[in-house]
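Quick one, T. Sequence first:
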Amino acid sequence: IGYTSTISFRPKISIIPFCGMISGPIDTILNLVLFVPLGFFLPLLYKKYQHIKNVTLTGFLFSLSIEIVQMFGWGATDINDLIINTVGACLGYLIYYLLSKILPINFRKRLQSENVNDMVEIMLYTIYIFIVMITAQPWVIHSLLNIG
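Structure tokens:
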């Protein structure tokens, strides 16, 4: 994400799927990793998200909201980001599903809630994504990989 002093509608939209994903695999991997915790923690904490369709829809809608915000001068809106973020949420669900087979049922049931009791969880995840986007992502790209 980039900083802009004024909010303006200057969309940079890429709607061709899978274009540039191979030439820019770091962004693809970072987008994937960014959404894995969402896919993992939703079913771990909430009974409503025990099916992958609910996790997939939530990951898709959350990613879509980020891509829409990026139309207002804070980056580029890319269909690849939407796809990879959704896949990241699904991968997180898969990790949860595999771990749920070895975790005791009573342990999982103690963690789960019937519904989202507060907006705190959503705000914490949003803060997590923002921190990763402004700290870890540029650090990995510029310092470790010497790109840019």
